[in-house]
Each structure stands twice: as structure tokens, then as C-alpha cells.
Write a structure and sequence with these properties.
With 322 residues, this protein is mainly α. The chain has one domain: Farnesyl Diphosphate Synthase (Orthogonal Bundle), CATH 1.10.600.10. It contains 17 helices and two strands. Strands 1-2 form a two-stranded antiparallel ribbon. A hairpin with a 2-residue loop joins β1 and β2 (96-97). α14 crosses α15. InterPro entries: Isoprenoid_synthase_dom_sf, Polyprenyl_synt.
Amino acid sequence: MEISEIRRPVVDDMQAVDRLILRRLESDVVLVNQIGHYIVSSGGKRLRPLAVLLAARACGYRGEHHIDLAAVIEFIHTSTLLHDDVVDGSKLRRSRETANAVWGNEASVLVGDFLYSRAFEMMVDVNIMRVMEVLAHATNRIAAGEVMQLLNCNDPDTSEARYMEVIQRKTATLFEAGTRLGAVLADSPAAVEEAMTEYGRSLGIAFQLVDDALDYSASDEELGKNIGDDLAEGKPTLPIIRAMMVGDGEQRDLLRVAIESGGREHIEAVARIIAATDSIDYTVELARGYAESAKAAVAILGTSPACDALIGLADFAVSRTY
């Protein structure tokens, strides 16, 4: 299913989210406006707000708060991108210079803080304590995941279990919170809320696994950033962790040096080892398993255009090339 078809059941809602994002980005501080608009309008896939909207509609919600929460989720995500790019020293995202490359680290961190605080203002406007609870827990868990990833940097002994814990916290948590909120808004039974939580969690894990596979297999143009950025930043993601597990002694020695030193000196050699050990296939196959778990979770909701789109979104997460 193409992404345009996945969006079809909530196309009007997505337009409303975009309008709300632009309106709530406004600030009397010029630099906030500049950086906020730069990063939000830079061509992201908007999969997280899309998941919120589809989950709400699939659960039968007929109000308007899903628009607010989809924008909140996007603001939180955008804030984490601003902070991530500073921590990682990234210079390219979505085929454009990162905000920190244009305006500097200090401005990017502070505007990221602005977006976080604006998101919490919008949560208060919704005035549902359960929403505040879910999102407060999610943002705290994401921050912890960021710290865990930092501890894994340049560590060639990072295990698959440690890696999976990081991506569950750092990436899957926001998907999970978003789809859970769709059920919360609809006042769904506990079983439905748990199913939507499982859907978002599994979708987010599948999405990140594919992202990490693409870092060694896509082109710079497709991916919108430099290939091998994870290795350059010293991040041992699953393709390289798997290659460390199944490679021979010489391959493991090279991978160990590459992870410990970071940079781009060893990227071509590492990519060859990853290909030789079928580590991309291993990573993508694991992602497919999580996508199937996400699709299975939706079954509790029956059949509807929004449910079909949620299933299509899970397939898209693993079939995409960007």
C-alpha cells in the first residue's frame, strides 16, 4: 500500500494537523520561528501523527482532540531530532543541512526545548489527565533511551538485547504513546487500549530496524542523510552487532576497531562485512516479524478503512527504501 493510500482515511485530519503545527509554532522570538519552521517543514514522513489519527479513527473516536495530540507527538519528535543532531554532530537530515549546522548547537538545543514545552502546553489544552500521564511517561522514557544509546556509543561489546532496549525506549515509545492515545480518546476498553499500545510499540521497533538497515544499504539520495552515519557516530546498530556475532575473527577485529574509533575511515569495509554476513537480511527479517505483530494487534478492532490503513502502515514501515 502506497503512503498516499494509507493517509486517505484521515487526509482531512492530516491537513488540520499541518495547519495546527504551523499555528502553534508561532513565537514572538524570530529565531524560534525560523528554526521551528525549518525543521518541521523539511519533508518528514509524518508517520507518528499519522499513526495517532488512524488509531483514533480505528477506535471509533469522532471528536477533534486527535488533531491536537497528533501535533503534540510531532512536536515532541521534532524536538528530539534537534537534540539528537546536536549530540551526534549530524550535518545532514532529510537531504538538508541540520538546524545545528545552520544556526549552531546552542540555538538548536534551545528551540528543541521550546518545542517540548509547547507540546506540554497543548497537552494541557486537551485537559485529559490520562493523556498527560501517557505523554509524560513517554517523554521521560525517550530521554532515558537517549542516555542508554550514549552509553552504547563506541562499545563493540554492545549486545543485541542492549540495542533492542534502546530502540524500544528511544523510537518505539513515541509510536506506542501515539496509538495508545487514539484508544484513550475513544474511551476504549482496556483490551483495545493494550492492543493499540502493542501495535504502536511493534510498529516503532520495525520502523527503527529498517532505518538501521537502510543506513548501510540505501543511497544518500534515498535516505536523505549520509550513508554510514551511525557508524561514523560510533553507534553499534543491529546490522553491525549481528556481523560481530557471526563474522570470522578477522572481520570481528575490523568491526571492533571501526566501532571504537567511529568516523568514516572504515565504512566501506564494514559495509562489505555486513553484506557478507547477511546482516541486513537478518535485521529486515526481524523487522518483518514486528510488523506482523503490529498487524495482528489491530485484529481486535475488526475491519474499517482506518484499520486497513494501520495494517498498510505496518507493511510500509518495512518495505520502504527511505
